[in-house]
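Take a look at the protein record below with the fold in mind.
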Amino acid sequence: MASIPHSGRFIAEATGHSERALTKANGDGNGVSTTKRRGHVGRQHKEESPDTGVSPRIPDAVSVRKHFVLDTNVLLHNPNAVFKFEEHEVVIPLTVLEELDQFKKNNDETGRNARAVIRALDSLRAKGSLFEGVVWNEQGGCIRIDRCDSGLPFALDLDKADNRILSVAHALHASGKRTIFITKDINARLKGDALGIPSEDFEHDHVDTDWLYTGYVQMLVPGTLIDDLYNERQLDLSALAGRPARMANGVETPELAPIPNQFVVLQNEDDDSHSGLARILADTGHLIPVTGPRKPVYGVMARNLQQTMALDLLLDDEIKLISLIGPAGTGKTLLALAAGLQKTLKEERYDKMLTARPIMPLGRDIGYLPGDKDEKLSQWMQPVFDNLTYLLSTRGAHSRDDADSKSAEQRMDQLMTTGKVVLEPLTYIRGRSLPHQFFVVDEAQNLSPHEVKTIVSRVGDGTKIVLCGDILQIDNPYLDSASNGLSHLIERMKGQRIAGHVTLSKTERSDLASLAAEVL
């Protein structure tokens, strides 16, 4: 069996789960179905509780109904998936319940999701027989369990769980019913296609990355508006009415659709050398000028326009949630850590700076690594150590006064000993509350949407959280640019008064790094 990143093989062997079970738990996620099911899986709707009091009766109009056969990995990815198909029928093969039973004892995200699905299905038993089908909403949505008692007229081994689930979809499809097999397992979708069964990915949490919010737009305006912005220290949004705005992907809109904390690059329509940068102030209907900090932020100065935007958000205490994405070397982590040290050590705005990297998914332990917790973490947190070492060195020039004989490593050890800088695994964050902290989560693109929700919901009063990552370089083999938690957060938090986002594009690590990013 090929090795799986993040010790997937180790966990499979340690828990006794098969490769099939691991695939079921996480899905392959390396591709997105090209068939968009708008109005079905991808459509958002009002969340319904299974306890709606609706009579457990199957509607008569079954001719227009679609039958969605769900694979185990869909339910382990999103335990509410059974309630996302509105007026259609959801079919859960009995084999899926057997596989959920294997995961329900796990003390991780898959175990919690398995238990949630089982509890939801158990609550439906009070309304009728699950084998006959239970109507759970006013639209006639039905959930049914299939006994997997049908075979396949093909040379597929029914001793394998995948094939027994496919046999359910095949029997429905062969009977003339509109059947769609929903799975996050790419190979299972290929099998379904070979059997002539329409097979698709579960896309409820997918984000269209081609239209992902970048945090800024560009506009051509008269030079007088730019002068007014800086002279008056604000500019009414009505002054930009009727003027087209160009997004970062090159698409032009007829008019600016203002989003709180969105940046607007103002370019003089008559003079290319005359420009300005503004940010839409939430709940005011005004833009405010952005000039960037006049002094280095812990030895770091913005090197381009996007970094100026990022620092403006990072240093604004009113903004509690910030997301930064971009290729390697664009300065995401360095800017976040520099702002965290500035706010924690210099301005004493926060009690401590907490830093984490989701090298392993939530719930998986680091106990098999040698050493104590700090020694275990040092192997995962080395990229953070590298950035902190630079910021705490004399080259970083964060404080010439205390640039004594202490090395950067000694300064970092001192900060960690005093608790001003804390490196934590995300494994045990569930149930915690984190007040008055500057919280930096690096490599957040490797988190699922539910894991991101778990982390952000831990934020206590007075805490600022920054999530950094590159959605095009995902190490988690079961997520992609459209389904990862960072993309999900950017799209869902867009327009919130206390949230901001910037997409960085230019590599500033070194001339060689910039050349490699461009040429290679």
